[in-house]
Amino acid sequence: MVRIQKAHFSSEEEISRLLRDNPRIGGIVTFLGIVRDFTDTAGVVALTLEHYPGMTEAELAKIEQTARARFAIEELLVIHRVGRLAIGEPIVLVIAAASHRVDAFLACRFVIDHLKHQATFWKKEILSSGEERWIHPPTAAPAVSWSGLRVAILTLSDSRTHSTDQSGAALERLVLGFGATVALRTVMPDDRQRIQDLLIQWADTQSLDVILTTGGTGPGPRDVTPEATRAVCQRELPGFAEQIRAAGMKQTRNALFTRGVAAFRGTTLVINLPGSTRGATHSLETIADLVPHALRMANGGGHH
């Protein structure tokens, strides 16, 4: 069941209803999303969410149908609020109920991950001064399809492991949502020579279309990802990096610190993304619709 509403909801009441209506339920997993201020701008007091009635419901229904087909769940409820919501208010509720806990956990996570990238909502910040500004303006977002593309994800960090690599995991979910195949994913330290060697190996031997790196793009002494990328690539796409920084500035002025580049090694496009989970995914979303066209041009195609 999918509901988009302005009214408050009660997690306890919704859970009670599910338990009352289905005695086969053996476990329930819930996710409660809260409105938060993720910018570094003081004075944000609320968000306003808008949607296209009918279209957004259809997108949510498709996510629900996919989850029901993929996991053995008894009940699934998704509630997403719209309208003006103050910081600290609940905004989204996902409840997955199953006979066994594993399917409930997996279904709940699946829905959460896909809500972020597939459901169309437009958000506006409300400042204490009364000023309003769009986070996601209500314009037709370009469709993103990476169908048929082979992608590799490289996380650069001296401290992360595969199990703690949230940025890499988030990028993988996003890329899969675009319809691409994640052929390779690994974590390695901020070592310039090792980064260069791996980029060469992946680009030259793995038939990859895109290599996404996350991390190592700042001004610190161990941040060497841009230098490693430039050393092994032939042609830069400075517009991609400029767009990533420009979009990041709408979220935080710290986006000015990112030195990431985008460049081709042969026909493989290497894109440096920030190391934070939000920074990496937001940056990729900013230029994702242009990637297939860039690849076509790198392979000899024109603008048509």
Structure write-up:
This protein is α/β, with parallel strands linked by helices and 304 residues long. The protein has 2 domains: 133 residues, Aldehyde Oxidoreductase, domain 3, CATH 3.90.1170.40; 149 residues, Molybdenum Cofactor Biosythetic Enzyme, Chain A (3-Layer(aba) Sandwich), CATH 3.40.980.10. The protein is 36% helix and 26% strand. The strands form 3 sheets. The protein has a 6-stranded mixed sheet, with helices on both faces. The chain is globular and about 60 Å long. The chain starts with a strand and ends in a 6-residue tail after the last helix.
Short key terms for the protein model shown above:
four-stranded mixed beta sheet, Aldehyde Oxidoreductase, domain 3, 304 residues, 36% helix, Molybdenum Cofactor Biosythetic Enzyme, Chain A, 2 domains, six-stranded mixed beta sheet, 9 helices
Element layout with pairings:
Blueprint: E1 2-5, H1 11-21, E2 27-34, E3 44-50, H2 55-70, E4 75-81, E5 83-86, E6 90-98, H3 101-118, E7 122-127, E8 132-134, E9 150-156, H4 166-177, E10 181-188, H5 192-205, E11 210-214, H6 225-232, E12 235-236, H7 238-249, E13 262-265, E14 268-273, H8 277-287, H9 291-298
Helix pairs in contact: 2-3, 3-4, 4-8, 5-6, 7-8
Helical content, roughly? 25-40%
**Largest pleated sheet:** 6 strands, mixed
Can you count the beta strands? 14
What overall geometry do the principal axes of the alpha carbons give? globular
Highest CATH level, the class of the largest domain = Alpha Beta
Known CATH architecture of the largest domain? 3-Layer(aba) Sandwich
Low-confidence runs: none
Count of helix runs: 9
- Encode the helix/strand succession as letters: EHEEHEEEHEEEHEHEHEHEEHH
| Mean pLDDT across every amino acid position | 88
Strands in their spatial order, largest beta sheet: 10-9-11-14-13-12
Number of domains: 2
